[in-house]
Amino acid sequence: MGRIRVLSDNVANKIAAGEVVERPASVVKELLENSLDAGSTSIRVEIENGGRRLIRIVDNGCGMLRDDALLAFERHATSKLHDVKDLLSIATLGFRGEALPSIASVSRLLLETRAMEEETGTRVEIAGGRILSCDEIARGGGTALSIRDLFFNVPARKKFLRSEQTELAHIASLVTHYSLAHPDKTFELWNGASNLLHATPVETLRERVFQVFGSQILEDLVELTERSIRLQLAEPDEPPREFKISGFVSRPQVQKNNRNSIFIFVNGRLIRDRLILHAISAAYHNLMPAACFPFALLFLRFDCEEVDVNVHPSKTEVRFRHQSFVHDFVRDAIREQLMQSRPAPSFTNAMSPGGGGHVQAGHQQAAALPYSDFSQMLQDFAPDKPPEPEPGAAAELPEFVMQHPAAAAARFDFGDTGIPVNQPVAERPAPPSTLRLKVPDTHGGFPEGSIPHVSGMDRIGELRPLGQLHNSFIIAAGADGLWIIDQHVAHERILFEQVLNQQAAGRVEVQQLLMPMIVQLTSEQQIEYARIADELRNSGFDTEPFGNRTIAVKAAPASIGLGDLERVILEILETAENELRSVSLSDLRRGIAASIACRAAIKINTPLDQRKMEWMLRTLAATEYPMACPHGRPVALQYGTREILRAFHRI
Ligand code: ADP
Ligand code: MG
Prior knowledge:
Number of helices: 20
Mean pLDDT: 79
Low-confidence stretches: 349-454
Helix content: 25-40%
Oligomer: single chain
Distance between the termini: 89 Å
Number of strands: 22
Strand content: 15-25%
CATH superfamily of the domain at 9-203: Histidine kinase-like ATPase, C-terminal domain
Bound molecules: adenosine-5'-diphosphate, magnesium ion
């Protein structure tokens, strides 16, 4: 007799469960997806003890036929796939036919279901993969699945579960985000007797975001209106492929220190994808410090043939057929939207404490829930692939930001005012709250409707400079309130765009040096130099190798002072090494432009006369993106008239 045996179904299911059922939230994910695939318009999720004691999902979908109710628990039994051709264009969330048998093998499961076309329903009871009963019952249409005692027969797995709160937070985040993907459906989430989410059908995603997160967070977001693009394939008889994107992204001043607030749906499926994460970071490049991340809720709709969803058992990863096309489409869509909306940071937003991470899931109802670490959960789903830092992200970058002369140039001596020097804005203590209760308007004037409510930086050119604060910040008044503009950062943005335009036109203004300047390089810098030498030339640096690990600089962009030249070149090489390796030419150009702009911009502690301040504001207004410097620091803060009035108890 041979030594190889075919595993029993029960063992095979448990093995599959190891991949599919990582924790309670992964059960919820599979069941939610089944309910959505069944065409449900209303889904209720009930949880007890973080999902360990009970997960129950009730839907009003198509239900299961009597014959199917048992079949659904067979391995690889699915109604969603017929033959292998279907695998190429999967439109449903499920297709593997693995979830129900896997879940049933590690829990006590109760299924109650009735298909619309049948008179009676079915009740199936299973424990640890063994069918205990199967009865006819009376019930309405739709399906209810109860999962009790998850992992009761897999003690090893049970040990890995985290605290009840953590597991619940994962579930809450999951249900919340699926509710965002389907604004037209009802979603309810109950933890015991307490209601964590109740979203009733609404017409737009904006309304759903409001329902789920509340108005405060909505204010920090920019809606990404739907854009679509067609790709004509090389094969002539293939129809063009369509790609669509919509969603919400945060204003650049909302800066999170990890990617946990980025949610990506591809064809209705919540996924984790490095390519898209990179595209998002690229969209915020030069708008936000490189080690920071935005909040993003993206819905991508691609022709099914463009997305391979059969990549991972838990279906949290996909593969795109045209990767770089998808990357650039996502990056450009977000970037264009940010450029268009140009929202101005308000005092309170920009100064919020705690690393600027003020986008949190915290609707009134869900306020008690910690915002869940959802992407961590997705990583947990795919434990074989630890996330690698992306080019230019994570570990090495905070250092870059610290060392970068932008920080040094902006160093400011506040004397003994006690304000910390050279600290990122986001970490400064929050100012005293300006929110007051409404009081009757006894002071006259300012009826509500007459207060101009202008946001955005389009009007910045119309501002009237009043003077400088500490010779460093321009104070200006406008119809929409009081503004403070960081003169160094504003000038940096102006020069940055100027250099970019000159680079693009191949016409950078240069200065010839009387004597070539010799710059000594480390061996890493020398490698970088060889890689980017052409681009340096295009940006106005005329350089050539000069003996061992040195280069001679014969000409440089006119805007850089000679004293700064060596620093700028070393900095460009260092940036190229840290941040831009394997990144596109346009990113490299932006890096070079950012270095030049930072060096050439006027410093703080520099007095400016009225004409110069006016010039600064007008020129800033004409830039493409006046809100942030190329390193992502805010340019201007606005203290809105409305906020001022509120603070003076006038409204
Ligand atoms: P898959 O979703 O990959 O098909 P599952 O194991 O998750 O595999 O489910 C097996 C089958 O059970 C599905 O194909 C579907 O026909 C049926 N099913 C599961 N959940 C529901 C539900 N909530 N409503 C109707 N049918 C369901
Ligand atoms: Mg399924």
